[in-house]
Protein 1
Amino acid sequence: MHDVARVAGVSQMTVSRVMRGTGYISKDVRDGVVRAAREIGYVHNRLAGGNATYDNPIVGVVVPTMQNRVFTEVLSGINATLGESGLRPVFGVSEYALDHEEDLVFDLLSWRPRGLILPGLEHTASLRKIIAQTGVRVAEIMDIDGDPIAASFGFSQARAGAEMAHHLLAQGYRRIGYIGSLGGLDLRAQKRFEAFQRTVRAAGAALVDVTRAESASSMVAGRRMTAAVLGRRDPPEAIYFANDDLAAGALMHCLAEGVDVPQDVALAGFNGLDFLSALPKRVTTTLTPRFDIGAAAARWILNPEAGDTARVHDLGSVLRPGDTT
Amino acid sequence: MHDVARVAGVSQMTVSRVMRGTGYISKDVRDGVVRAAREIGYVHNRLAGGNATYDNPIVGVVVPTMQNRVFTEVLSGINATLGESGLRPVFGVSEYALDHEEDLVFDLLSWRPRGLILPGLEHTASLRKIIAQTGVRVAEIMDIDGDPIAASFGFSQARAGAEMAHHLLAQGYRRIGYIGSLGGLDLRAQKRFEAFQRTVRAAGAALVDVTRAESASSMVAGRRMTAAVLGRRDPPEAIYFANDDLAAGALMHCLAEGVDVPQDVALAGFNGLDFLSALPKRVTTTLTPRFDIGAAAARWILNPEAGDTARVHDLGSVLRPGDTT
DNA sequence: CTGTTAGCGCATTCAT
DNA sequence: ATGAATGCGCTAACAG
């Protein structure tokens, strides 16, 4: 900055102001500074200033996985919203492990981020403690069933699960199955499952099969598990999947093996990913506003002053019946 | 750090050394410092030191899009490799626009990254200039057909395209189509296409239909375009798609409409994404090492000293014939 | 609208 | 194995 200032014939502080676009600078001076910077090939160091201001143009983001479109879409929403303000997300992948999440948050805090975006409402005690100590602004996303640290953005996982149960029951299915993944590590999926299970049983229907892969969810896993479940004695009339990938894999199994959907077995997914509408049958699913959740959380981090004092932000989810139930 | 030092009864410099794990520190002192830090809730500021060292534990990454699994897998590879060294990727999305890429690089340089990872070998002149001026370490990924700034990691897009042409020709197809997306903005896809086209024509066969969506590639777009192409007079006997999503969408169309594959039309994709193996038919495709490309590029950024002086790193691609050709 | 002064939190360098 | 002095590149606060 000193060099730029010398070349432009102004003070170093003026260069700083031009670079950040703050304060009142006459057009002539501004142009001169910009030209001088270009001339000597100067690139503003945006992190050095964080030293003086105690924070950086960064938002720390923890995602459970990158293998699932859901979280890359959330990340897209965050990135798009932050981009307008020149901030950037710096992310870590927790692999659905709370203790790993704790380590990640500790690391991300060493970047002095303006805020943190975390998945879900469940965290370790140490995590909560360090958040309280440092006073970072934290947005919790994807789930609103619980008490947020500061603010939550998402929808009710329990309501979504119960709603799908009601839908299947309304279609007359009484012998129902559930197929998930990750051995139940996905706490949001688990919440959906539990509400689903409660609702099914409360109606006097039976949850006849619950299967979870140890692996991550994928079409391949869905196809494999569905084949297994349908091969057992007295298979379910309808299966609720933890997400669309699993459900789509199930549909592929049925297409390949000539199993009639929904006559022989009904299928329901979760998330409403775009690719579903390319499949031969429209899969019944629940639409979730993934991009918007990321965008809303990012916006909340960006505007500490905004009159938005709500702690719980329900962006809603919508059950979309298809041709598979 | 001062506070930690006071509590631990050592100098600030010793705390700095403990935090970074460098230099020789006696176990007693180290433990005392760690305890003191925990006691007062101190979190190391990893970016402040970048001030003194002229760079930060950051690698700037440009990806063309987040809508495509391909690039999230590359990002995973980068993230996994950097994680071991405590660095983090900071990414920007170029939307396949070279001028936007230029802006992003300029922005990423303001983070004083240890290196940059860029998609492809084509960049604007200004981009090249600023890279040269700042002397950042740059890894170019996904393509090796050309002259890298410093080092490239990927495979030959041209070879992959030609190889698929040979495969289709060997199966006896003479009237061939191509379906892409993004109006040709994806320069790697474009290179594949051109080599494919050359090879088809050199063999005396005909490229009878070339269709590109303006939108991003997706199963939905693939299904829609395939329906259109097959509805025209004298449709192609085989279609080469810019990627697996498009090809999978085509297969869905054929399944839904009772079009026999590969009897009525043969289909070939590109990338070898996992989900292909869940489809009712194995789609012919080219396997690409996406995760490994990201990992290799990250490793190269991490080890400036390594004896690796090669500029071109061919990680290879493999044509995998399936049941659709 | 622009400049001066002071200092952010840390790492390098050189002592000891 | 540890400490003191110094400076990195930048911004806040205030002066004018």
Protein 2
Amino acid sequence: MAQTDGKWQLNELAAPTGVAGERVQRRVTITDIARQAGVSKTAVSFAFNTPGRLSAETAERILDVARQLGYAPNPIARSLNTRRTNAIGVIVPQDISEAFSNLFFGQLVSGIGQVCNNEGMSLMIIPPMRGSLLEATYAALIDGCIVTGLEPEDEVVRVLRQRNLPFVMVDADAPEHIACVKIDDFDGAHQALQHLLRLGHREVAIVSFESFSGHVDQYTGTLKHRFDGFRLALKEAGLSLSSRSIHCLETKCSQAGGVEVFNRLMQLVPRPTAVVALSDTIAFGIIDATQQHGLSVPGHLSVVGFDDLEASRLLRPSLTTVRQPIREKGLRAAEMLMDAVRRRFTLPRHVVLPVELVVRKSTVRMEG
Amino acid sequence: MAQTDGKWQLNELAAPTGVAGERVQRRVTITDIARQAGVSKTAVSFAFNTPGRLSAETAERILDVARQLGYAPNPIARSLNTRRTNAIGVIVPQDISEAFSNLFFGQLVSGIGQVCNNEGMSLMIIPPMRGSLLEATYAALIDGCIVTGLEPEDEVVRVLRQRNLPFVMVDADAPEHIACVKIDDFDGAHQALQHLLRLGHREVAIVSFESFSGHVDQYTGTLKHRFDGFRLALKEAGLSLSSRSIHCLETKCSQAGGVEVFNRLMQLVPRPTAVVALSDTIAFGIIDATQQHGLSVPGHLSVVGFDDLEASRLLRPSLTTVRQPIREKGLRAAEMLMDAVRRRFTLPRHVVLPVELVVRKSTVRMEG
DNA sequence: CTGTTAGCGCTTTCAA
DNA sequence: TTGAAAGCGCTAACAG
């Protein structure tokens, strides 16, 4: 019950000597151990890091003293010397909670985590700090990182260079000299829309996630490639993005975004009979809203997604969608990153993963 | 195309002076800036941290030089002084990829992330390092952490104390002096099983996630509380855990675990008409497997889950389950943690969140 | 096998 | 307003 002091303390702090009433909380350092054990700091360091360089008894004695004094090496001091943190980061331009609200991110991180496991690394999620992703990038205690949701022109990339941190971009339109893992967005989008058009749909809406570029014609990166794919599919059907029957909307990349966009979809004239969402999460929201309104998918509205999240197969109707290998994307990016962190020789710097249309039950042939 | 040198380099490294051919890659330090700007290191430090203490022109000049030389302060060195890392951790006893394969974890992290956002913190996911969670705990560059999946007796807790790191446990049977956020497991389990029994089911299986204790009677913590709840529900129906018609199984806490356990369920005699899974993720697997085998939920098998993941409502049949406020759990834990990290005065150290049975379509009254 | 001696790069009194 | 100097706690040559 040493509760009496230190109201702010969340947990009892182990007094260095184990003596209850002790007030001074100076952390036990390597110097204390050295003194107590009658050896040099070097010896203590060796005892922890390369015990082989010490006689068994010396090492044992040192470790004993350390145990008694409750000593734990300060990892920050260690990092300052070794220049290693044993952690890699994932930079995300949104808040963490927002990022994880899209199941996509969890799967990506899961893939990255597999590599962390093999390499003995921890994983730092790095969101903007007080609104500034740059500040967060400056402060991150990591050995390298994976950058998501940013273009190569971003200042963050500049800071990473400045900090001399290896990094790999994901889903970016990166130049040759920047490592990057992406998917064939063009092909995915093309297949998705082609599928709908071949089913006879002509009134179709394309629901994109929010871009900062504003208009479809100014899209860059992933979005641009996907819309190029859409353009081709439309052209093949004698249509174009500016056709009266083709609508382009943007919404938040979340389930809530899908719900929100549903209402706008219902206002459109002519009302679309099919929609392709640029993210499964958005599709989930659209389907949910549709059903809440007593309408049926695909009866009243065919829906195609993009991603093929694990949940997409389980939904009813199961979701027709463009599958991309999300976990592998994370895994490949993390592998490339670790090659750089470990300074292993590597060549391939750009990886483009294939996508595949998975036709399930959320789309149906247009009647009439 | 400075590709020629440094095969191991993942990205071009910005040469300190911007000169292409430069080979020496010594990082620019505060000393370089001081020298170049003709001021002391102190001044440079001030220019970055408390520019107010310098004349506007001096500060500007220093920053200019820093910009030109591509200087970025070394956050590790800074941390060594300030004793802050601006990151909190989440300790997980499994691999990262395994942890995130249960949607529960993503939602928990999402809640924690909300606090990170408010407090300007990054979030470190800390899995075992080379098999050792202890080693990972020793090495983590964090200001405090949230501990999941561990009991208070765990060595990790001892190390956290040794390192003087504030921490909060989640879902643990923690003693008074250890901060903890949990739910009313007893009530949740009781309601879940009571629901099934009231629907007339008598042949029921309880599918738990893997424990290390082995037998039901040796369960501790969360699992113990839940089984106490089950015991009460059974008792109210004149049954007990050892009744012939009640089966207890364990499986991995994942969808795959649910699929795996389904096969064992089908072998049981008498074959259960209902099952309560201790995790929605497991329930997903059971439902999926059931349907794959051409059987119907709840027609052939009623299923109750535990968690109420976001996806549980979207599934068909939508899942009857015990809702626990997962995000809030993470949020509350993170708030308590940050109170300790920021040394704010706090009192409540134990939080027990309520649960609630959500009856949906995966359970039905027993026929006959 | 063990200890001495420099740092690692930055912050922060304390003086000027 | 600015600077000198003493650390923060540890690692790693280099001697002995």
